[in-house]
Write a structure and sequence with these properties.
By secondary structure, the chain is of the alpha/beta class. Helices cover about 15% and strands about 25% of the residues. The protein has one domain: Metallo-beta-lactamase, Chain A (4-Layer Sandwich).
């Protein structure tokens, strides 16, 4: 892994620019990993100039401001597609404030919450009226998002997953009789909407907080995700999502969307050290949790 790099900033985004191998004038896929301090928000600008935002972080204004700053840097004046992985406050809470700052054309999600889910109820109630003002698409496994120039395939949604993948190689890390650890949050996290976004040979895997049986089914006994160039480790790198079978995607780069004391478990970093072909592990935010001296920080842009 590369030497540790740390850069201070208040509103922070990591920009990955990935160029085509075509000899003609290059078009790029730009990905901004926005530091919402333990939540999730990722802005993607496709080669066709369309914008996909995955999650919006927390309510309170800070995260909406950071997303708007990233959008401005990317030349984005509207969000073409907003995909919400699930209806927790750290992923969906910022929608009302963001919608007041940037037009959102299409909303993609797994539709609704489980009856009686008290942790998701207030967030969903604030989100639903905003969603009603735009186009709404209910994500189903196997669907593709309405984007040009890339293929963004839904691999999980509403606790359901795809049943076949590209090549679907047998996962050698799926030990007979192994049972996945119980999810840290058993209701909404396992219902996360996840995608594999492909642009040429580049593949980005974002599963939100997918955990429990749906995560297990997508990697065992066959790896239905294939290989990843960049892997956003699910559930902020929590200990419930980092057993060896989940890393058969064999990313070149793994990204941890942790906060100062949230996510980025010691178990996740230890597991990543043994991933074949892994070149680096990046944090979205500098961790101050126990064992942080063994962890890597992403290069970050100050705003």
């Amino acid at each position: 892994m590369a030497d540790q790099k740390r850069f201070a900033g208040t509103a922070i985004a990591l920009l990955l620019t990935l160029c085509t191998v075509a000899a003609r004038a290059a078009r790029t896929l730009d990905i901004y990993f926005i530091d919402v301090e333990g939540g999730q928000s990722t802005l993607i600008v496709t080669p066709a100039g369309e914008s996909l935002l995955i999650d919006t972080g927390y309510a309170g204004g800070r995260d909406a401001d950071r997303i708007v700053a990233a959008a401005k840097a990317a030349g984005v004046s509207a969000i073409d597609v907003l995909m919400l992985t699930h209806f927790h406050a750290d992923h969906t809470g910022g929608v009302p404030e963001l919608a007041a700052r940037l037009p959102i054309k299409t909303f993609v999600d797994h539709d609704t919450i489980v009856a009686g889910d008290e942790s998701s109820g207030p967030v969903f109630q604030a989100y639903a009226p905003v969603r009603a003002k735009g186009r709404h698409v209910i994500a189903k496994p196997g669907d593709t998002l309405p984007l040009k120039g890339v293929t963004a395939r839904v691999v999980s949604s509403g606790a359901a997953t795809i049943h076949a993948g590209a090549g679907a190689p047998k996962n050698p890390s799926c030990a007979p009789g192994f049972q996945p650890p119980p999810p840290g949050e058993p209701i909404e996290n396992p219902r996360s909407t996840g995608i594999v976004l492909q642009f040429g040979a580049f593949r980005f895997v974002d599963l939100g907080d997918l955990s429990g049986q749906p995560l297990f089914e997508i990697v065992c006994p066959d790896n239905l995700l294939g290989r990843a160039t960049v892997y956003l480790v699910p559930h902020h790198g929590g200990a419930d999502v980092v057993y060896p079978a989940t890393f058969d995607v064999r990313p070149r780069v793994a990204i941890m969307n942790n906060g100062e004391r949230k996510g980025g478990s010691a178990a996740s970093f230890e597991a990543l050290r043994s991933v074949q072909g892994l070149e680096d592990v990046w944090q979205i935010h500098k961790s101050r949790a126990a064992g942080a001296q063994f962890r890597r920080c992403a290069r970050r842009e100050s705003r």
